């Protein structure tokens, strides 16, 4: 049975997110996005596709397929069959990873699923709101998110963490539980605002932002030069794809936080790419208590 060193997968995840980010920046700089409507979401908004999405997808997936051909890889743009030139990885593990994990951590290749989001916040990317843009990689072991990488290509920031391993990011010193600041998606902000204020009160502060990766970063302690909005809880009440959330889930878990469905169930990163139970993400708070405050979505 083939085994893979998780340190190598972490190093490759970092490299892939950053290489994808280079393509995202290059396409945005050239300006020829050649955007098209990929599909309609359940909220009847158009999900757009650009050359930035495709170029990033091709380089990121190529790195994994040439390095670990027996590891399952799922990318948001797997419908793309154009291929492109093969990208090779050096198999060099950065010193910042080795200092946390000096010894090999071997797992069976068949237990692994790599989730890739080659360009998160495509709509904002098109509108030059590139501070929301991220590229993300997550490695799940038997459906549990273990490695998470979120890269902000326009801010030269890469955040990574591995459960029971190490991290180059940390939680903030304090969070507000009684009146938390909630960060939500701009595409269904009204629904989530009403939902969140039923749970936490009419004066609950709400931040509207693009990109699931950006929203997770808003819960963390980043360098001042690249700090995002500061939120205490991330709430999403509708259908969302697992490549959008797996990396953030792994990072939060590694730092002692949580990302669950709105009922408090763990999200299984196997099988279907759809997460239909909504989500709540928090760190430094009593997550179970937060879940208990949530109203039933069926309530008017």
UniProtKB/TrEMBL annotation:
Cellular compartments annotated = Membrane
Q: Name one GO biological process term.
A: phosphatidylinositol phosphate biosynthetic process
Obligatory cofactor(s)? Mg(2+)
Q: Which GO terms describe its molecular function?
A: 3'-nucleotidase activity; metal ion binding
Q: What is its main location?
A: membrane
Alphabetically ordered keywords of this record? Hydrolase, Magnesium, Membrane, Metal-binding, Transmembrane, Transmembrane helix
Record's Gene Ontology CC terms? Golgi apparatus; membrane
Q: How does it sit in the membrane?
A: Single-pass membrane protein
Alphabetical list of InterPro entries matching this protein: CysQ/Inositol_MonoPase, Inositol_monophosphatase-like, Inositol_monophosphatase_CS
Amino acids binding Mg(2+): 76, 117, 119-120, 244
Family of the protein in this entry:
Belongs to the inositol monophosphatase superfamily.
- Which named protein is this? 3'(2'), 5'-bisphosphate nucleotidase 2
- Organism whose genome encodes this protein: Latimeria chalumnae
